[in-house]
Amino acid sequence: MNEALDISIVIPLFNEEESLPELSEWIEKVMLQHNFSYEIIFVDDGSTDGSWNIIEQLCLKNTAIKGIKFRRNYGKSAGLNVGFEATKGTVVFTMDADLQDSPDELPEMYNMIVNDKYDLVSGWKKKRYDPLSKTIPTKLFNWATRKMSGINNLHDFNCGLKAYRKEVIKTIEVYGEMHRYIPVLAKWAGFSKITEKPVQHQERKYGVTKFGLERFINGFLDLLSITFIARFGKRPMHLFGTLGTLMFFIGFLSAFYIGIMKLYRLNKGIDTILVTDNPYFYIALTSMILGSLLFVSGFLGELISRNSPTRNTYHIEKKI
């Protein structure tokens, strides 16, 4: 039987060979100082440098360190999801491998989960060492996320340093690029005790960032996606069916009105054009067709939602 640990730390990485030895030593030092039982799970997301060789060496030196290697690059969300499945800790942490997240923050965040009974504690990099080209879009992204999610007490949704009660990460599903919205996913899964803690942001010591400006575009699209899924994922007919019925009804009433007016004019002997020569007839017809298509889409969505296959299929090459 697997013994439960105090802390599990999931660290997804891609080409971070320089920082891994220093990061593991730093974490080990903090864990020993506070007498935590722990595990570190490095998830190598298809690195092309020597990251996996470093992880293998670290596993030999410290049995608390474990490694998972993907055959190719799947993205941070895939790394987190697979790492979450492997955790055994009561409190689960995520952090980046680039040394910009400080392990010294872990004990206090652990106490906030265990003693203050929070479900999720998100780090807030109040003072950042990033260029304006990154900080300004980040502020806009976080503002939009707060407005759409209703989680108004978080300033930094995308901070890699987070602490979770075990039940949270065993309940939610992280896929695509949804790692940015784990607090939103947790809230919609019923975990409402979410807070943040200001954390120290370290300057990048090795390598370069792996994320470009396209992440903000993808992030906004993902926000729309999870907003739709959370509200209508289990009942797509409520959205498509309602819109379809409304459009069909408007189109039908418009066509009915055009037909009645045609009959009225004929009855009164007033010259009138053919119904098919009236441009509004085609607008009404288009509205009815679109309404029918939306209704059918909602019906098909209902069928799919009841028979959806598993979304996550990852090909793991090695596991320690």
Question: Can you walk through the features of this model?
Answer:
The chain is an alpha/beta fold. The chain folds into two domains: 5-232, Spore Coat Polysaccharide Biosynthesis Protein SpsA, Chain A (Alpha-Beta Complex), CATH 3.90.550; 236-305. It is 48% helix and 14% strand. It is built from ten helices and eight strands. It has an eight-stranded mixed beta sheet with strand order 7-5-6-4-1-2-3-8, with helices on both faces. It is elongated and about 95 Å long.
Note the topology.
Blueprint: E1 5-13, H1 20-33, E2 38-44, H2 51-61, E3 65-70, H3 76-86, E4 89-94, H4 106-114, E5 120-124, H5 132-149, E6 162-165, H6 166-171, H7 182-188, E7 194-198, H8 214-232, H9 236-268, H10 279-305, E8 316-319
Parallel strand pairs: 1-2, 1-4, 2-3, 5-7
Antiparallel strand pairs: 3-8, 4-6, 5-6
